[in-house]
Description:
α1 (5-17) packs across α3 and α2 (30-37) packs across α3. The protein is elongated, with a radius of gyration of 23 Å. The chain has helices at 5-17, 30-37, 41-53, 82-88, 107-113, 160-167, 184-190, and strands spanning 57-60, 64-67, 93-104, 120-130, 133-143, 172-181, 197-207, 210-219. The chain has a six-stranded antiparallel beta sheet. It is α+β, with helices and mostly antiparallel strands. The protein starts with a helix and ends in a 10-residue tail after the last strand. It is built from seven helices and eight strands. The relative contact order is 0.11. The model has no long low-confidence stretch (mean pLDDT 90). 28% of the residues lie in helices and 32% in strands.
Amino acid sequence: MKTDFREVKDDMRRRIVRGEWTPGALIPGEVDLAREFGCARATINRAMRELAEEGLVERKRRAGTRVRLSPRREVRFEIPIVRNEIEARGARYRYALVEREVSVAPDWLRARMALSDGARVLHLICVHHADGLPYQFEDRWISLAALPQAETASFEVQGPNEWLVSEVPFSDAEISFSATSADASLARHLGCAQGDALFMAERATWFEGQAITYVRLVFQRGHRMTTRY
């Protein structure tokens, strides 16, 4: 008898991995599985939902749940707090606000974030340091329609990412990674040579369809990102 959805999910996963439930096979219904495992139907539903999120099964209304023909693996990224990232490496963290300006969103940002004409934004440029050396350059735009309180926040001591995490959740995010060459500004802020190849991450977030922020993060030479799935 199993009453914890994790136990049920683990048992179902084993059946899929061992081939008891083959690719494309229709999995027994929730009522039958609840009887077999001796648990509530809601427990089965939770286990199935998590297996679907992991990409092992596919659920369709009125058609039941089937083992996916090609299991899909999703890589999930947590939005990191750079202070925690640096301190986890045993380094001393320091933050500096370089520039701050309230303006009307430029055309490229309005198009990128689906902002209205004349939308006001807060533009921040910051540098994060590890043991006194530049670690990350942050070029961030915050929608003042979504977060009017950002206009009066100081950002002198606390970085905007830490502030945003405490102020508002997000429901959707878009992240891209690429290489970029250091221009004069990046070279100056990161203490590298102009033309150096650097790692860049761009991230945009929304909450229930409303744009929150767009940020461009550029890291010091040799930066490496690792994720597990």
